[in-house]
Amino acid sequence: MAFLPDYAELHALSNFSFLRGASHPEELVTRAHALGYQALALTDECSLAGSVRAHFAAKECGLKLIHGTELIVENTKLVLLATDRTSYGAISSLITTGRRRSKKGTYALTRADVEKTNALALWVPGEDLSAAPWLAEHFAGRAWIAVELHCGPNDRAKLNGLQQLSKQTGLPLVAAGDVRMHLRSRKRLHDVLTAIRLGKPVAQCGQALQPNAERSLRLRMRLAQLYPGELLEETLRIAERCRFSLDELRYEYPAELVPPEHSPASWLKKLTEDGLRRRFPGGVELKVREMVEHELALIAELGYEPFFLTVEDLVRYARSKDILCQGRGSAANSVVCYALGITEVDPARMNVLFERFVSRERNEPPDIDVDFEHQRREEVIQYVYQKYGRHRAALAATVICYRPKSAVRDAGKALGVPADEVDRVAKGFAFWDQAIPPANTWLQFAQQLRGFPRHLSQHPGGFVISRGPLAELVPIENAAMPERTVIQWDKDDLEALGLLKVDVLGLGMLSAIRRALALVGRQMHEVPPEDPRVYAMIQKADTIGVFQIESRAQMSMLPRLKPENFYDLVIEVAIVRPGPIQGGMVHPYLRRRRQEEPATYPSAAVEQVLGRTLGVPIFQEQVMQLAMVAAGFTPGEADRLRRSMAAWKKRGGLEHFEDKLK
Question: Is 280 helix (H, G, I), strand (E, B) or coil?
Answer without folding.
Answer: coil
